[in-house]
Amino acid sequence: MPTAEDPQFHAAVVSTTHLSPSLRRIRFGLADPAAFASSGDPDERLLIEFGDDHRRSYTVRHWDADTGSVDIDFAVHAGGRAAEWARAAEPGEPVRLSHPKGWYRPPTDARWQLLLADLSALPAAARIIEGLPQGTGVHLVAEIPEPADEQDWATDAELTVTWLHDTGNGRTPSALPAWLRAHRLQDGPGYIWSAGETGASRQIRRHVRRELGWTAERFDIMGYWQADKERWLARYAEVEPQIEALTMNELSAGRSIDEVRDAVDDALEQAGL
Fold it and tell me: Which GO MF terms are attached to this record (predicted)?
């Protein structure tokens, strides 16, 4: 019995577009557009099942209900089954898509927004920017492989963009946590949205939670992918019983979800994860 998380909507590649040296846009046409619906979140993500039942999570760059098409921007870096598939994908190739889900939830009183993204999160950040209303102040700090990967977007927002070249993205440790620590945030109530490598996202979350003292409604910070995944999974398997026990103990003690996450993050760091 499939769940909402399972890819169940049949689709096929309609077209491909070369966006930059590191990004390729693939448009999928849904076999039954009426059965699929956007979550309405600009950072919505879904699972794509392709090839030999291989699954990966990607941001919906654009959803067109009239044509029943979904645009996904794929990072086409060297290595990786999904990147290889995206580089070679041709019209007619079948896939299956899951229901989309997003996390972007700025509080209504936010006077400004800070978006932190590596290449994997750039499509979501772009869609957020394009949908912001006039007068919204937003600063995007984007970590990309090379200058040719920079993009421009049409937006009514008051947009500032800082590009970080040749850092993170599987090449070097992410520079986003250090950038955040080194820069003073704007005055007044704000909102931070961040997505990228899991270890970097954990550092960003720790800074926002502990050094800045922000509460959960003022930020959404996601890990989209894991660097050195095989080593990470092997090490996590060794400490998984302790992590699960810690989680249950914290919940039983009446800790909030954020406090539980803080404790788990500390335990993962101590385990070298």
Answer: oxidoreductase activity
Report which DSSP code applies to 250.
H
Check pLDDT > 80 for residue 232: no
pTM as predicted? 0.88
What span, in angstroms and rounded, lies between the C-alpha atoms of 217 and 169? 28
Please name the amino acid found at residue 15. Answer: S
Answer yes or no: is pLDDT of 243 > 90. no
What fold is seen in the domain 9-97? Answer: Elongation Factor Tu (Ef-tu); domain 3 (2.40.30)
Neighbours of 188 (CB within 10 A): 10
Q: Which residues pair with 18 in a beta bridge?
A: 24
Q: Does 16 have pLDDT greater than 80? A: yes
Give the integer Cα–Cα distance in Å for 140 and 246: 36
Q: What ranges in the chain are assigned the alpha helix state H?
A: 81-88, 122-131, 176-182, 198-206, 229-252, 257-270
3-state SS assignment for residue 96: strand
Which CATH architecture does the domain made up of 112-225 adopt? 3-Layer(aba) Sandwich (3.40)
